[in-house]
Amino acid sequence: MRANKLLNSIIFRLFVLSLCVIAAGCSSERSTRYPSTLLGMVSPSNHSRLKYPELGDVKIPKVERVTLANGMQLFLLEDHELPIVNASAMVRVGSVYEPADKIGLASITGTVMRTGGTTSKTGDQLDEELEQIAASVETWIGQNSGGASVSVLKDDVDKGLAILADVLMNPAFREDKIELAKIQHRSSIARRNDNMRPIANREYVKVIYGPESVYARHTEYATIENITRDDLVAFHKRFYHPNNVMLAVWGDFDAKQMIKKIEGAFKGWEKADVEVPKVPQVQYDFRSTVNLVRKDDINQSAIFLGHIGGMMNDPDYYALTMMNAVLGEGFTSRLFKNVRSRKGLAYSVFGVYSAGYDHPGVFYVGCQTKSESTVYAIRAMIEEVKKMTASEVTDEELALAKDSYLNSFVFNFDSKDKIINRLMTYEYFGYPPDFLEKTKENIEKVTKEDVLRVAQKHLKPEKMQVLAVGRPQDFVEPLSVLGPVREIDITIPAPKEK
Fold first, then answer.
1. Among 115, 227, 270, 313, which is least packed by CB within 10 angstroms?
2. Whole-structure pTM value
């Protein structure tokens, strides 16, 4: 027994000794890696003394551009890092061109082009074929453009391109898949008033653009019911022609060989006269309004207030981008620091001066707050917008805004798909190919005087439209203290009985 005690004692002493050695080593390593002078330098009180080298220039790979005999525009970017080929198409189409009594037609067309299969294969057969080669093909139509994509291994690129071409050229629009798409839309309609934030987003856009605007309208049971297979066929036939399509391809391929492969895949697809209407214009009158969406099953409010925004080709776009960063972008913004942190009036707060490619975006500031604080929060946000038009931002605010933009600029080029799809998007909307680079150069030149000038020119704090979603009976002050209140009815019209 005495021998066992002696052995246990020796083991314990060795264990303690090993811990001491490890601790000494860690202490030595720490003092070697982090000398006291450096530790003092990065303390919170001395962070401003840190110096960083200037950012280097971003190297942008060259994208090859080709127009095929059938009018299809190609954008090609070789990337041999992985044995994968990707392609993304843009089609000049959109929900802005669908009839008012058939809202949802564009979306359903874009969905069923893929799910409904082609004249030679059903959608389920395409699924099986793509699954066997670990590939994907998708189609869609949004507000102002349509799209399609394929992602496939290099060895199966011929088959992937053939399926993509077949889907774009020969969709079958099978009735069962049309009905399935309609069911999905009906389900979405039934749930659209469940959460207050989506309600606020949807109704605020309607307040700004008008409920009948192509930029604000949405599906109803009746508009979905009005859509027939003939409508889908006609909509596709009207817009889907090669001279109305752009195709970006990036991945592991040789550009010359890829051009031949694409020509072969789309052989027989002939150009046609495509009459795409001009993009609908936005008519807006600056005015002050107060709007309420009553939602009695919540104890908080979602608030939006603002007016029409701008266009990306506006010379003021660069200064407006910096103005927006100071006002409502991130943890350092005025809205976050003053409305949320100092006054404690919001769970979340945000501000956006959005700009569109082909029509004006929307300016809005907003928050989510407890019901009792609704009017207080509205006043606080209005006050921050007024301050932007009253005096210049500080040197620190502008520097933070520029640093945030410039330090993240490199992420515009961290993948080949961003590079090539952005270039195709600029071409689609008629912007110069170096628009992003010019934006960076112009943002670097923005001054405090520029920010104040564009704020005074574009912000109208006295003519903002207010929308609140919540329980008005819980508001400490009624919305009417801000002006006459218009209550918006969001009741979903019932579907017609069959």
1. 270
2. 0.87
